[in-house]
Amino acid sequence: MIGIKKQPLSSENKHPKLYFVTFLLVGFVLLLLTAAASISFGAARMEIATAWTAIFSFDSNLIEHQIIRFLRFPRTIADIIVGSSLSIAGAIMQGSTRNPLADSGLMGITTGAALAMAIALAFIPGSSYTTLLLVCFIGAGFGATLTILTASLSRKGMTPQRLVLAGMSITMLFGAIGTFISIKYKVGQALAYWTSGSVAGATWKELALVAPWFLAGLVLSIGLAGSITILSLGEEIARGVGQRTLLVKLLSMLAVLILAGLSVVLVGPIGFVGLIVPHMMRFMVGVDYRYIIPASAVYGGVFMLIADLTGRLINRPNEMALGIIFAIIGVPFFLFISRREGRAFE
After folding, report:
1. Could you tell me the end-to-end alpha-carbon distance of the chain, in angstroms, rounded to an integer?
2. pLDDT band for position 4 (cuts 50, 70, 90)
3. CA–CA distance from 64 to each of 38, 43, 74 (Å)?
4. Which residue from 51, 47, 86 is spatially nearest to 68, judged by alpha carbons?
5. Which CATH architecture has domain 73-345?
6. Higher pLDDT, 24 or 121
7. Among candidate residues 275, 282, 278, 264, the one with its CA nearest the CA of residue 327
């Protein structure tokens, strides 16, 4: 099994809780600053003062105010929700499976939700947002279950390296099936726009539907943080201290499915967010998931906002899809982590 290296919360700090609180407060400040930038800047050029006037003194007769209130503001909130959700999901998966390469995009979860979306677009046209959300949850659950079952088909049982290989195999299989459905039933254009990764179409109605699920997943994740820390040390140790490992794993998977499922509905099947952010947080705050999960929630939102803002500004007025941005960042990071942990795959 791949273990998680122990490291101090701070090599020079003798008060880890104070350091963590400070680190979290810095994260909240960065979140507010990046959210302000996301609302203020975009494809349409306008004065910063105009952007903030639209929030506090909305005038429905001004097109600039409509852009801020109904496009940029909900888009910013969607970025925060998706970034936090994917980062928390990645942290939970890495801790509960003791696999540093675990990520909803690499474990078949995101692709399962994407395949379910393709099926819904082909066979249930005009579905409500609630229906699509439920379909994505089911697809995410199916992808996760199939990945785990495939990885377990061995006398030695499921190992981290088998889990990665199974996830990649399921991802390729679901991707091929999704492509066939999109061509066969002529939903390729709608599916291609959605799978490229974008929060441009986020609305207040969608956010109102997704927000309770996000809060439920966040509360469940924080509640499981202590148990995941123990589980990350190994199942034998966890059982030795009386932990109900099966229950912890099932609840962890439920949290991952909720968070990954709602993210796929909002932004599409983007990857690597849940791989990169938890590793960065583990380096900054140590291996205790009571610190990693809240930090991932905050800094995941910051990471997503920066990526989305970059995609909007890099070739203005055109936008670069989030999937492309995360692939450029994520692939080298994945190779780096794979090489660093390569001894576990020998």
Report:
1. 12
2. very low
3. 15, 12, 15
4. 51
5. Orthogonal Bundle (1.10)
6. 24
7. 275
